[in-house]
Amino acid sequence: MKSIICLTALLAFALAAPVQPNSVAQDGDQELAAFSYAVDLFDAATTSAFTCLRQSGYATVFLRVYKPDGSGQVDQVGIANIRSAYNANMGVEIYHTPSPQANKAGGTQFDETYTALRNAGINVRTVWLQVTSPINWGSNQQFNINLISQFLSRAKTYNVNVGIYTNWYDWSQITGSWTGWTSSQLVSLWYWNAYGATPQAESPANFQDFRAFGGWTQASVKQFGLQSNVCGLNFNRNAYQTGTYETKALAFDASKSDEITVGNVFV
């Protein structure tokens, strides 16, 4: 019985402990690739909570700025979170969860997000479009493709980069493994792979499980863990290769204006 209690205590400590730098060998690559960590969340958080996350080893946060409620609407909690995370000196990325079955074009949904951010004094370099949960999208794959294509096209007119948050299964079910985006613009990939919706069911915090799909041959970010809780916040855990993006992000931040800029970590 004592050994069971000790094992339980050690597991609880491991799940709550700060993340540590992680190096893994990539398939076919003799060099070691170090990874940094990010979280994604949509609940309200304070600057002190984000500071706690940063001190716990998380360099970047992905914040939801559009939610699928009703016919889709700007997430004001996410916009407030941007300022709090920025003040905590975290890298800030934003993601847009669309309302895929609403009578609202993808371009219109992008406009709503972009306008709300600019009205709040926030510059946008990149926005990530969530394409997950096939049950929320409906079975008309061409309709789904049209919404995504409209979103991409509208972002391009504003000179805003777009990334897609999905995985091979979701992309296949929602779009039929569409690759049409490759002919018009560069789209980064944030993919997810977790073995279950608990911290104990995380996949490895590296890209060794990545498989090419939908026109992507590499990924920028991986969501490897779901529903963690640290610093009083519920979030998902992500990994990305250290050095690939961070130097650029820091160089861009060195010339800050009075406005906040989001989406500069992965460009």
UniProtKB/TrEMBL annotation:
<dbReference type="GO" id="GO:0016998">
    <property type="term" value="P:cell wall macromolecule catabolic process"/>
</dbReference>
<dbReference type="GO" id="GO:0003796">
    <property type="term" value="F:lysozyme activity"/>
</dbReference>
<protein>
    <submittedName>
        <fullName>Lysozyme</fullName>
    </submittedName>
</protein>
<comment type="similarity">
    <text>Belongs to the glycosyl hydrolase 25 family.</text>
</comment>
<dbReference type="InterPro" id="IPR017853">
    <property type="entry name" value="GH"/>
</dbReference>
<keyword id="KW-0732">Signal</keyword>
<dbReference type="InterPro" id="IPR002053">
    <property type="entry name" value="Glyco_hydro_25"/>
</dbReference>
<dbReference type="GO" id="GO:0045087">
    <property type="term" value="P:innate immune response"/>
</dbReference>
<dbReference type="GO" id="GO:0009253">
    <property type="term" value="P:peptidoglycan catabolic process"/>
</dbReference>
<dbReference type="InterPro" id="IPR051595">
    <property type="entry name" value="GH25_Enzymes"/>
</dbReference>
<feature type="signal peptide">
    <location>
        <begin position="1"/>
        <end position="16"/>
    </location>
</feature>
<dbReference type="GO" id="GO:0007165">
    <property type="term" value="P:signal transduction"/>
</dbReference>
